[in-house]
Amino acid sequence: MSFDTDPAAIAANPLPGDTALGFSHFIAQADAVGQGLLVLLLLMSVMSWTVIVLKALSGWRQRRESQRFVACFWNAGSLSHIETALANGTAGTARDPYAQLTLQALQAQSHHARHGVTRLAEAGTAAEFVTRTLKKGLDAQAMRLESGLSLLATIGATAPFIGLFGTVSGVYHALLAIGASTADAPGSLAQIAGPVGEALIMTGLGLAVAIPAVMAYNLYTRRNRVIASQLDAFAGELCTFVAMGQPLGAPTTAAQAATPAGDRDSDPEATGLARHSGPVAA
Q: How is residue 188 annotated by DSSP?
């Protein structure tokens, strides 16, 4: 096939079904494979943006609820006040990971105090049982935070190749059609450039689907690492509270006895829970 760039030759050999080239023309001329790939890319885009929006909303709601609970936790007078606030729903909701960890720790301590070691799962001291309970709670929170990320990773990795496959299929069928129409006449570059350019639309669509998914995956992965680190730090302090009844580094009973009563009243460290800011989910 020869490529004739003479304008007269191009006018004499127009593109079969001389119509305006573009996305609508490409869709109209696409075969079942091309249309199926286009529908697949559309579904992948809808799923990707659904996950992105839902995780953004859930992250915003969780950050607000976590700030509320952490402020309530560090300003409470005792763990019993926290337990009462959780039961009444004034300290936070069940969706907040900080509230869930605190509730699980308090329930584990209460269960071990009432029933003792009755099963292998409860073997060990109360502190060890609370630690295992918090470890399971942290694992459950990590799994919840990672929900949807595998879908974003899959879409980000496969969408460009799906678009490329659609481009290859479109170019192949375009060349076959051009070859059949110019069997008895010389072909021109314009006859090839139009259909091939239309076929490249599929590659662009694949990239348009993949890029937001990859960016969201990286963003949420980093956010989950920060939240997991903050939850781990909070769980460590919570375990100390539940096991010892006082924060890490707080004065011991002997030290409290040696401290004058007036100084103990003015010292927040000597009254039980310390009044300071805890970790807040990012």
A: B
In what helix (H) or strand (E) does residue 113 lie, and over which residues does it extend?
helix 97-115
Q: Could you read off the pLDDT of 229-252 as tens digits, one per residue?
A: 999 988 888 887 776 655 444 444
Q: Establish if 280 belongs to a structural domain.
A: no
Residue at 202 is within a domain: yes
Tell me if 242 sits within 8 A of 133, measured CB to CB: no
Amino acid at 135: K
Enclosing domain of residue 154: 22-271
15-53: b (≥16 Cβ within 10 Å) or e: beeeeeeeeebbeebbeeebeebbebbeebbebbeebbe
Q: Which residues contact 202 (CB under 8 A, 6 or more apart)?
A: 34, 37, 38, 41, 163, 164, 165, 166, 167, 170
pLDDT band of residue 207 (cuts 50, 70, 90) is: very high
> 4 in helix, strand or coil?
strand
For residue 279, being part of any structural domain is answered with no
Query: What is the number of domains present in the chain?
Result: 1
Task: Please write the tens of the pLDDT for every residue from 45-94.
Answer: 999 999 999 999 988 988 888 888 888 888 877 777 777 777 776 666 66
